[in-house]
Amino acid sequence: MFVVIGLLIIAIGAFCQSSCYVPINKIKGWSWESYWLVQGVFAWLVFPLLGALLAVPEGHSLFEIYGGFPKESLLTILFGMLWGVGGLTFGLSMRYLGVALGQSIALGTCSALGAILGPVFTGHAADLTSAVITGVVVMLVGIAIIGVAGAMKAATLPEEEKKKAVKDFNFSKGLFVAFLAGFMSACFAIGLSFGAPLSWPETNPIFATLPATLLVTFGGFLTNAAYCLFQNARNRTFPDYGKSSLWAGNLVFCALAGLLWYSQFFGLSLGKGFLTDYPVLITFSWCILMALNVTFSNVWGIILKEWKGVSRKTVIVLVSGIIVLIFSTFLPQII
Question: Tens digit of pLDDT for each residue in 88-121?
Fold first, then answer.
């Protein structure tokens, strides 16, 4: 029963993350760099801080645990900064491939590398059991199938049809950016692995990873903020922040996008708290989150008509890939 509850919570978080681009599309009158920075304040600072505070026992503070593990804290922030590069290119993968295909390739790469590199970097390679590795391989097969569907879409649809669904659609450029985004985004999982000691013994297990999550997102915010401010200066878009008539509506959508995005890691922490008796699922939990993110992003891609006009064969390939992904999330527990 606990397995079902844990997986359900992770699934809810994944659904929220996959929905975060819906409110972003409602933002008006701001350049990409302006709204990306503002939503980042909520996604990578405000909500992660509120989440981390839930893990702090009475009479203690976050500074206490960070100061007690300075090396682990700095490494967690460092990999958060590297993850921030993945976050920037992740946005570009959406731009060139759309929500469905962009997230599928980027998150698939992130999933596999994050699950493997986290234990390797922290000296826990023994946690990579045959069940976990098999799950990762099957998940990559699902991602590859979805990638084939994307290639079929790019080959068959007229250019004007692709532009209707994704304004700047460019399969080759998007593919490169998505793989780069996935590689760098895997640093989030590595950062969480280094941040594993950053909790108190009396902390509720469902909140245990949230202090480390805050450090990773803080590192990512530093990278993204520097890039966004640079783009503001380069594109002369600092006046965006002075458009007072737009702030009320845009701030609400930025906050909502940030909350939805952070929900994936809040849900991951809560879900893992119900999986403590299942070490294989704990190790594989990062992959489960990413696979569900891909699944729900493709559902949104269908809703947003990104696959409109493709052949029935392409749809069958796409759905097959989604089914393989869903199956891969349960496979390690079955083996």
Answer: 777 677 667 766 666 667 777 777 676 677 677 7
Q: Helices 2-18 and 244-273: crossing angle, nearest 10°?
A: 160
Q: Which residues contact 309 (CB under 8 A, 6 or more apart)?
A: 157, 161, 165
**Token digits for 236?**
């002369």
All structural domains of the chain with their residue ranges: 2-334
Kindly state the tokens that stand for 311: 């052949």
Shortest CA distance to 151 belongs to which of 105, 90, 182, 92? 105
Closest listed residue to residue 108, CA positions, set 335, 334, 325:
325
**What is the rounded distance in angstroms from the CA atom of residue 264 to the CA atom of residue 89?**
19
How does pLDDT run across 211-231, given as a tens digit for each residue? 999 999 999 999 999 999 999
Round to the nearest angstrom and report the end-to-end CA distance of the chain.
18
Token representation of residue 295: 């699944």
pTM of the predicted structure, to 2 decimals: 0.79
In angstroms, rounded to a whole number, what is the distance separating the alpha carbons of residues 68 and 61? Answer: 11
Tokens encoding 92 = 């570009």
Residue with tokens 């939805």: 260
